[in-house]
Amino acid sequence: MLPYAPPESAPCEKYRRIRPVAQLDSEILAALKDIVGEERVLTDPESLQYYGRDWTRFYEPAPSAVVLPGTIEEVQALVRLAASSSLAIVPSGGRTGLSAGAVAVNGELVMALDRMNNIGDFDPVDRTVRCGPGVVTEQLQQFAEQQGLYYPVDFASAGSSQIGGNIATNAGGIKVIRHGMTRDWVAGLKLVTGTGELLDLNRGLIKNNAGYDLRHLVIGAEGTLGVVVEATMRLDRPPRDLAVMVLGVPDMTAIMRVLAAFQGEIELSAFEFFSELALQKVVAHQALQRPFETITEYYALLEFEQPDAAAMERAMALFAHCVEQGWVYDGTVSQSVAQAENLWRLREDISETITPWTPYKNDISTTISRVPEFLAEVEAVVNENYPDFEIIWFGHIGDGNVHLNILKPESLDIDAFREQCGEVSRWVFEIVQRHGGSVSAEHGVGLLKKAYLHYSRDPAEIGIMKQIKLAFDPHGIMNPGKIFDL
């Protein structure tokens, strides 16, 4: 185990030692194979492409090799080797990220954690379970269900995203309004730092005020502080008979009033929104039906428990009130589990539907009350400067998080599109800054938003972040170039 030692030189000088490499020399390749086995060191072009990228398509992956460790000890040995060889590491989970946080573009070694997918040490009293970083989100959800419990962090990529990646990005999703982010469900985690040291953080405790909680520094750090190799996750009681309602609304102000009305009477587990154009795309490409014939500018999707008949009666009374006030023009409510799933698909299938258009995604947030003004300003600046761009809006309106998706026109070259979207981002993030918001609500910063971090974080904050990075990763090998440059 390498002992921790503070950097001997300034951060920028220290990090110059990490050199881009196109191909590893035979000695390092042999050492990698000694650690994980020859068949788990991949250098063929197909593997480099597959493991070297995530869902973003703006960067061409160029890793030097891919390794697939199966134990914590193997991860430690790989990190120590990388540190001694000045070889950068990109941790890789389900590769579903949307900010290029897991993309290897400079000859890094990709550490894919797919094999570390064990679930064990379930404690029914504490309602906790230990997971390897390669456990797929849906796998944990199914395990919880088998125990009569519930893991509430959920999103469209639950069938392929991994717990380690969820922790690295502090993933949110569709249930945040009630259940919070991934951070709220991590009772403890183990981290291999940039020196190969293993940290056991919080150990599943509910109360632990013995100094700094380093666990929360790791959550959302995008692999820049080390590799998450195990997590103790909390579980909850299962929801009771969920109902889904989709409402057609004339504008964003009306959506906010609907949210306030329902939250005053019902505990919502989700409150989502999407635009008419988003609905058109989903219906056309996913063989789904419109929820009702009335066409409105936006749609709100609400989910709530209905443990008894009185719950649905309250919901229907609120619906009638919103219609009387002119906030809602039409609506529908699920009458079965299958209907609820189909209504959810109207929202959840949007990302998959628009993928062929190579969308430029902005995952932005502000306080909930400011969302209508915020969204109107963003839409106005994009429409004024690029009237030919199609804009798809959807998001977790109940927690102030909206997703701006700009679709690439078929005739426009990808590089030109990316350049123009870069201009859009600057304008959008100036609006974000004016509203005290975030340039990344839940997808992370990665490469895609690195240049815009200063719109959400002031220089003092960024400076402290860099010092934290150096404390965990003094050799500068852990996912360098993501979030910020040193």
TrEMBL record:
- Which Enzyme Commission numbers does its entry carry? 1.1.99.39
A Pfam family annotated for this chain is FAD_binding_4
Keyword annotations: FAD, Flavoprotein, Metal-binding, Oxidoreductase, Zinc
What's the protein here called?
Answer: D-2-hydroxyglutarate dehydrogenase
Q: Which family does it belong to?
A: Belongs to the FAD-binding oxidoreductase/transferase type 4 family.
As one GO molecular function, the record gives:
(R)-2-hydroxyglutarate dehydrogenase activity
Q: Which organism is it from?
A: Pseudohalioglobus sediminis
Q: Which residues form the FAD-binding PCMH-type domain?
A: 59-238
What is one process in the GO biological process aspect for this record?
respiratory electron transport chain
Catalysed reactions, as listed in the record:
(R)-2-hydroxyglutarate + A = 2-oxoglutarate + AH2
